[in-house]
Amino acid sequence: MTKILKEDGKTIIQTESRIDTLNASQFEADIQHAVRQPGANVELDCTDLTFIASSGLRIVQKTMRTVMAGKGTFKMTNVRPDVYKVLAMTGFTKFIRIEHQ
Fold first, then answer.
1. Which of 21, 79, 82, 86 fits a 20 to 30 Å CA distance from 96?
2. Is the distance from CB of 72 to CB of 41 less than 8 angstroms?
3. What is the pTM of this model?
4. For 1-101, where are the alpha helices, taking DSSP H only?
5. Cα distance between residue 55 and residue 43, in whole Å
6. What is the chain's pLDDT, residue by residue, as a tens digit (101 residues)?
């Protein structure tokens, strides 16, 4: 289950262990309200994320674009090495701020 927290003026979205074809649509639906707020400062906390499929990457990119269009900020934090490799291989590290473990 995705958790959304408000802390120190930012919105923290805590992921589940996987974002894949089975749960990507639900993940997107869960976070829509939080990321559509004008000026939202969104942090995608990936502490528990161990796997991300192409459907999950699409949601991350769409989320980042939505936040940026609303003049907010977006970053991914606590990204595990295996997930970071996927993000780097697909070019996400070039356009998304990523803090990894």
1. 21
2. yes
3. 0.92
4. 24-35, 54-69, 81-89
5. 19
6. 799 999 998 999 999 999 999 999 999 999 999 999 999 999 999 999 999 999 999 999 999 999 999 999 999 999 999 999 999 999 999 999 999 87
